Amino acid sequence: MAEAGIEDPVVFEEEPGTSSRLHPLQRPKFGELLTYARPGDTVHISEMFRLVRGNQHILDVLDVLHRDRLALRIHDGAFSAMDLTARHPRTGELLSTVKFMVQTLAAAGELQRDLQRELTYDGLRAAEAKGSKGGRRPAVAAAQTADVRTAYLEGRSIAALARDHGVSRGAIRTAVADLLPEHTAGDPGVPAPELPVVLDMPGKVADYLRTTELEPAERAALDQGVTVRRGQGYTLRVGAVPAVHRGLLARCQPLDGVQGAPAVPAQRKARREYENRVSALIPTGP
Fold first, then answer.
1. For residues 118 and 112, what is the distance between their CA atoms, to the nearest angstrom?
2. What is the pLDDT of residues 55-84, one digit of tens each?
3. How buried is 173 (Cβ within 10 angstroms: 0-12 exposed, 13-18 middle, 19+ buried)?
4. Choosing a second label site near 145 at 20 to 30 A (CA), which of 20, 40, 111, 191?
5. Alpha helices of the chain — where are they, by DSSP H?
6. Is the dihedral of CA 63, 66, 70, 74 positive or negative?
7. For 60, how many CA atoms within 13 A lie in the half-sphere containing its CB?
8. pLDDT at 282 over 50
């Protein structure tokens, strides 16, 4: 809002997890927005498909905004360059050129989502064929946590504990995370291990990485991530040591574009968002 030069905005934002399959006019916060707004106000949307899913949704929203005499500004995406409020001066209907562009861009957006979904499923099937099991890996059971911590302090290695309890090494590290610095501080020759850091990874980055060859620790971090719905998309809340975050960031470098395969703007933007989070929260060394 600040970057767009909007002073004192009134924000209406859906809670995480709100179903994006609802018609926009049935979404609670958008209903509150329409009730609050007065003629002459401007509705700002970051990107059109954060609110709508298809052509008819867009036309319905435009009709309601026109009825309530509200202006519309879209800040990103293909619709940001269009004046979607342009109507015939006599009939009051959307200009035919505007309606045509809305229908064309909505169809293109739906095609892009379908292609992304198909590529994700293809990647998951390829991973399964190589023996990789999807889903979240089990955590250390609450009843076993005390035993794991005791065994770790007695000198049992993380790898051995993971084998004993049938979980990943990351699960063991999570169970003993607060013990790691103290356990190694007595030996000045052993550097203190990195502690896990939780970062939000944009969904487009996560979708790409799921179809990419990863190291076991990177794959484990991705599989254990928690999905948080964000309008039409989602973010993956990933907890991992800094080295793993840096490795995942390096793996998605092709999203910036490679020779013969130009970058998709939305994917490039998502990668840079993740890069900013990694760079801001994790020191890369002296």
1. 10
2. 777 778 888 888 888 888 888 876 776 667
3. buried
4. 191
5. 28-36, 55-67, 96-129, 142-153, 158-165, 169-175, 180-185, 203-210, 216-223, 242-251, 265-281
6. positive
7. 12
8. no
Q: Are strands 42-47 and 71-76 parallel, antiparallel or unpaired?
A: parallel
- Which residue in this structure is represented by tokens 């709100």? 18
Tokens read off for 29: 């916060």
**DSSP result, 97-135:** HHHHHHHHHHHHHHHHHHHHHHHHHHHHHHHHHTT---S
8-state DSSP, 151 = H
User: Which residues of 7-49 form beta strands (DSSP E)?
Assistant: 42-47
Distance CA 81, CA 73 (A): 10
Of 11-25, 79-93, 112-126, 184-198, the poorest mean pLDDT is in 184-198
pTM: 0.38
Euclidean distance between CA atoms 245 and 241, whole angstroms? 7
Cβ atoms of 87 and 94 within 8 Å: the answer is yes
Dihedral, CA of residue 246, residue 251, residue 255 and residue 259, to nearest 10: 130
DSSP 8-state symbol, 18: -
Q: Please choose, from the candidates 96, 49, 38, the residue with its C-alpha nearest in 3D space to the C-alpha of residue 75.
A: 49
